[in-house]
Each structure stands twice: as C-alpha cells, then as structure tokens.
Amino acid sequence: MKKTIIALAVLMITGQNLTAQQLPKDQRMQWWREARFGMFIHWGVYAVPAGTWNGRQIGNIGEWIMNRGKIPVEDYKAMAKDFNPVKYDPDSWVKMAKDAGMKYIVITSKHHDGFALFKSEASKWNVVDHTVYGKDLLKPLAEACKKHGIKLGFYYSQAQDWVNPGGTAIRRLTKEGWPNPDSVIIDAYTKEHNGHWDWRQETKTFEQYINEVSVPQVRELLTNYGEVAVLWWDTPNGMTVEAATKFQSLLAIQPQIITNDRLKRPDFPGDHKTPEQRIPNLADLDGTDWETCMTMNGTWGYKSYDLNYKSPQTLIRNLIDIASKGGNLLLNVGPTAEGEFPQQSIEILSEMGKWMKVNGEAIYGTKASPWGLFPWGRCTRKDTKNGTSLYFSVFEWPADRKLTISGMKNSVISAKLLANGARVKTVRTKEGELIISLPAFSPDPMASVVRVDVRGKVAEKIKQ
C-alpha cells in the first residue's frame, strides 16, 4: 500500500512535468489521424523455428512459440545462432511500405521472448551480442524511414519477458481453467510458477527486471534512434503503477511521441486504443482515437506453413471500413530469419498500393462517415475550403446502378469516379435524398470510389 501511494504521488508530479514538456495531444496526433494506414513488423528469433519445434508444429501465433511450446530458455537462446538476416534491406522494406500507401512503421524492438533487435547495454540477449549477424537492426531502419519520409515507431514488451529473468509469463487459460490445450508441455511446475516453465525465468524479481532491463532499454530506444513517432506498449501483464510511472516519465525524451493503451490499464490510457484482429462496431466507438492491428494471414511472427492470406480486396475494404469509422489500420508483415518479407506479403502490399495510388484521397486525412454504414459500401469525408468532399466507396454494385443518400441538405458542386475520372449524375429529390447514378459496371473490383463535392460543412451525424 505504501509503495502504491508513493507511486501515485510520483505519477502526479511526473504528469505535471510531462504536461509541460510534451506537446499537446491534438498536435502530437495530427499526423497520425491523417495517416490512417501503417505497417506493423513482427520480427525476432521466433522466425528461426518458423512455427515448428522438435519436429512438431506448435499451434497459435508464431511469435508465441517459446511460450506455447514451453521451450527451455537455453534451448530457445540457442536458436539465435541461426538468426542471420543477411538479406535484410531496410531501404527496400520502407519503400514497400511507402509504395503500399502506408505512412508509418511500427517494429517489434523487443517482443515477449525478450530478444532485442538493437544493441543494448541492459541485456546481452540482443541481435548485436547474441548472433553472428552482430549488427543493430533498428538504426538502418530509422535512417531509411527518415530518407523516405515515413514515421517510425517501436513496439516494446515492457512487462512480459520469457528470457530475461524477472519478466512475467502470462498464463493462457481456457474457459475451463488451466491449461490451454494448444500448449505442448504443461506440468505442475508451470502451473505453480505463474506460467513460468524454466527456473531461470524466476532468478530475479519483477522489480529487478523493470529497473535493470525494461526501463533502461526504453531509454535507449528513445535516445539512440532520432525521432520516434510511436511507442507501442505490449502487454500490461503484471504491471504496477510504480513501474508504469517510470516508463511514463521517459516520454519527456521525445515530446512529440504517441503511445497506445497497453502500458497499464486503466491508469495509463495512452493516446489511442488498440483493437486487435477486429474492426469495432459503430456502437463500440466512444470518440477515442483507435487503431486496428491486423495480420495478413493468421500469425504476426513468421510461420513457414501459414499460407492462409487475406485477399487484397478484403484488406482494402477493411482499410476503408476502418477509415469510415475514424480509425487507423496497422497491417502486419512477419519477415523471415534471413530478413525477407514473405512473397505473399509483397504481392498484397503491391496490390494495395495500386489501389491507394488512385484512391488514397478517400483515406488520408478523412473523418468518419456522417451516415454510419451503407449496405453497398462505406463513406469518408474531408473538409475543404469550399465545403466538403464525400467519398462513397462502393463494395457491392447496385443492380439499379443508383446510390441513395438520405438526409443531406448540402448542394452538390461535382461528382466523379476516382478510378477513371468519369463524371456521374446526381439528383436531389423532394424527400431530401441524393441519388447518384452509376455506370453499368464497377471500374474497380477492389472498391470503386465516387467523390462528391458539396457546398458547406456536412453535419457530423445525419439521421437516416
């Protein structure tokens, strides 16, 4: 209790200092709200086993293989000898993200396996000190992002760590309780030791881990790589107010930085929410900034046999749906241990980029739809000098070739298809409906966008 009171007092003092040293939230969030589309990169030693250990395919997501397979610490650390990303080309990675229409990149500087992709004085379990590759992976990525005008963010697992002693090891329970059946090895030791399966994981306390590894590494990340746009916490398992306050105080190093809501809930809400692998319903939105993080296939970290990729059409429509609700999409790529993007990921990024090159204005800098959802598609909007630009993205081409928009009082200036620039006719009815007449066929199978420019500002929400 005494520690908690002290921590809260420190938080109040620190919070006052941060208010003075950090930029106002709206100023920090401006670029992020305009970006709408970013790349997540999950990369680490888990790319070496690529989903398989001891001849067995381990279920669930690839970056959790150590936890799900209950791989002993020394066995897992031995895998690092095969983490040799000689094909790593950060300039190519950043260019692929930019060509896909992405405006920022967030990479796993350290995931739950504790392996740092950067040179760290706080733990030798890092790419420089523990692999034959021996080079910091984040510095050239930061340089490439700066060169191509892409914002760079760092994912960091602040509490959960399966190799550095003292980190937490979350229990994965089923509704029936312990254990989760997709774990390969579960024994009494694991159950009795808070999810740990190797005695080495418990040779230090959580407080020692926070003070000796986690806080120093975050300081390194915020100090050694130039401007850091985003600090993406994950996960708050076992976090305390005292520990979270120490992390929060470091943000003053980067006054412009944006953080998410996973430092410690609910005490440290961050700047935006992070729904994972799902797009919220309209009823779930409360006006808070949010970002859906999503995989292209079924895993974040690379798994050689997970080839169940979403189609470019699905991902493009997901992006449109998210933008129409006022959110961002952080779409994941899981590179191989040699440093290459899977070919399917490259092809998907290319297709998304082609669509974004033509239709990106319907995504970037837009606000949520005043009407909510349409059965045939989605809408985004953008304020202009003369009024409002409305972007109607059509997924299902109406059989009667007409879009009916209810409750809009603004007069139309112009209307056209972004795919080919063709003008479309619009009619206003006495009932207050806007009828948009479409050509016989959709010009874009991914999603065809009709831009309608109107006079004046369109209301935030329109009753239909």
Protein described:
With 464 residues, this protein is an alpha/beta fold. It folds into 2 domains: 2-362, Alpha-Beta Barrel (TIM Barrel); 377-455, Sandwich (Immunoglobulin-like). 28% of the residues lie in helices and 17% in strands. The chain has helices at 2-21, 25-35, 65-69, 73-78, 90-99, 127-130, 138-148, 188-192, 206-224, 241-250, 312-324, 343-359, and strands spanning 37-41, 52-53, 56-57, 104-110, 151-156, 230-233, 258-259, 291-294, 328-333, 377-383, 387-394, 402-406, 412-417, 425-428, 433-437, 448-455. The protein has a 7-stranded parallel sheet, sandwiched between helices. A 4-stranded antiparallel sheet has the order 10-11-16-13. Helix 1 packs parallel to helix 10. The longest helix is centred in the N-terminal third of the chain and has 20 residues, at 2-21. The chain is elongated and about 75 Å long. The relative contact order is 0.13. The model is unreliable at 1-20 and 173-184 (pLDDT under 50).
Examine the secondary-structure arrangement and name the CATH architecture of the largest domain. Answer: Alpha-Beta Barrel
SSE order, one letter for each helix or strand: HHEEEHHHEHHEHHEHEEHEHEEEEEEE
Oligomer: single chain
Q: Span from first to last CA?
A: 53 Å
How does the helix and strand content classify structurally? alpha/beta
What is the CATH first-level class name of the largest domain?
Alpha Beta
- What profile does the largest beta sheet have? 7 strands, parallel
Number of domains: 2
Q: Give me the count of strands.
A: 16
Largest sheet, spatial ordering of strands: 7-6-5-4-1-9-8
Which range does the strand content fall in?
15-25%
Shape assignment: elongated
Helix content: 25-40%
Compute the number of helices: 12
- The mean pLDDT is 93
Classified in CATH, the superfamily of the largest domain is Glycosidases
CATH topology of the largest domain: TIM Barrel
